[in-house]
Every structure is written in C-alpha cells, then in structure tokens.
Amino acid sequence: MPIFWLLGWDTRLMMKDRLHALIEPVVASLGCELWGIDFVAHGKSSLLRIYIDSEEGVSIGDCERVSRQVSSVLDVEDPVQGRYTLEVSSPGLNRRLFDVSQYPAYFGANVKIELHLPFEGRRKFSGLLCGIENDEVIVRVDEEEYLLPIDEIERANIVPNGR
Predict the structure, then answer these.
(1) Which of the listed ranges 4-13, 20-29, 37-46 does the model predict with the highest average pLDDT?
(2) The domain at 3-89 falls in which architecture?
(3) What topology is assigned to 100-162 in CATH?
(4) pTM for this entry
(5) Burial zone of 139 (CB within 10 Å; 0-12 exposed, 13-18 middle, 19+ buried)
(6) 111 burial class (0-12, 13-18, 19+ CB within 10 angstroms)?
(7) Where do the CATH 3.30.300.70 domains begin and end in the chain?
(8) Which long-range contacts (CB under 8 A, 24 or more apart) does 119-123 make?
(9) According to DSSP H, which parts of 30-143 are helical?
(10) Quick one: pLDDT at residue 5?
C-alpha cells in the first residue's frame, strides 16, 4: 500500500505535492513527462518510484539520466524522511493512471480499478473505461455501467489487449 494512504490526508497531499513540485521540472528538463509517483514503505526503508513517459518511448538511458538528476535534487531538498530507494521506470503496457487528466486518452480501453472502500458491495472492477462524468469514472463491467467516485479510486491500470 502506498505510504500516502498510511499518513493523514493533509500529510499525504502535502508530501505528494512537494515531491511532484520537486521532480516534475527535472523530468521535463530532460525531455520526458512525469507520469506518476509512488512512495511505498518497506520496513525501515522505503521505495520512491517515479514513472516517466515520452512520445518517443522511454529508454534505459532516459531512466538513468532522470534518476541521477532527481537524486541530486532530492539529496539537496531532503523531502523524504529516513532511508529510501529511488527507482525510475516507464509506465509500461499496463500503465497506472495516477491523475484524472490521464483518463481521457484511454476511453475505450480495458481497465482494472481498485477502490479504497467497497462501492455497491465491491472494491475491484474490471471493464471498459467509458468516460468521466462530474467527479465519477464510468466503467462498463459486462453489460452494467458503474459510476465510480474519482476520490475513492486507490489504483487504476490499463489492461493491455483486454486481458
């Protein structure tokens, strides 16, 4: 579970916003887009994983360059308490959707969505991403459409080739 959910709501938002504010300009300066950030506690150490994307695709060299530059900024700014490992990755085929602004590009794609709390008796939904209406994501599971509150989505991933 991302540490953001283990902390209080205000602390989660502040930490996520601070990391994003520090990392995004570095990633952009290297010709990539910051796709998302995960921060996961692992016992005495933590994992800070950042996902980068680019229209040309992401190479190992891109990940290495971003890792070196982001590491330098984080060493100076020290936004994370305690020990952590920095990992830089592409979003991959089953890319996670971190922000509501990322959803429209995948309307018509198959997704897996997991909620923080059950909605209509379930937490996990696998189906077709149909759209966004107000503050809800529309997902068609079999022949039924669900309107899932955006704020309740813990994790959403694209399912490549509908598998």
Answers:
(1) 20-29
(2) 2-Layer Sandwich (3.30)
(3) SH3 type barrels. (2.30.30)
(4) 0.84
(5) buried
(6) buried
(7) 3-89
(8) 119/146, 119/148, 119/149, 119/152, 120/146
(9) 60-77
(10) 43
